[in-house]
Amino acid sequence: MRSFTLIQEGLQTGLDFLYSGQCHACGEAVMGQGGLCGACYAQLHLLRGARCGLCAQPMAGLSPDGQIISCDDCLHAPPPWDRGFAACQYRGTARSLILALKHADRTDLAHPLGMMMARALGDVPQGAVIAPVPLHWMRALSRRYNQAGLLADVIAAQTGLPVMHTLLRRLRCTRMMEHFSRAQRIAAQQGSIQCTRLAPKHVIVVDDVMTTGATCTAATTALRMMGAQDVTILTLARVAKPL
Ligand SMILES: [Zn+2]
Ligand SMILES: [Zn+2]
Q1: May I ask the CATH class of domain 47-238?
Q2: What pTM does this model have?
Q3: Ligand lying closest to the C-alpha of residue 240
């Protein structure tokens, strides 16, 4: 048994050596089967401390009794979903990786990033179905893949939950909304996503970035209209306000 383990370890070391690769973010050589170099990992800004249980905004302090805490924005205008998770903040390394996944054909990044999302989800809700936020067909035509769909496949493989790629559909190709306020974004996105069939009871909506939550609001509203009772939002990164 021991010798088997030694052989296994030897093989593993050999494999590690063979596959030692480059940092996903900067291309620097790293040991092991790829990953991030120390400098890029330090700029990853994982969301680990206290955060809003609805929109994942980092918060100061801790929940007094382990209940879901809400940030001021969610207290004043609660989003329509039940809980929300994000793996990291949308800055530094995560921002570069997401831009590469979206605009530079780095579809290989979907695996490590999807694994981070599966970890951020924590306990896997029984009976839930994963639904990626869709691209409008015009955008899908030029990009050739939906980054949220790629991430959803990795999360599905990791959690054992099914994924429904066509549950949600984009009806409009919304403009870039970088300078829009939260209210303007929600108004612009209203009715832009349709649920194409009777929704499962519990849906996990997967997207790459949450900024104001306008896209997730449109997706959740569409799902609720078609019967979803429980909606979880899982994004890779959250555009967070400074604490
Ligand atoms: Zn690096
Ligand atoms: Zn919040």
Answers
A1: alpha beta
A2: 0.85
A3: 2
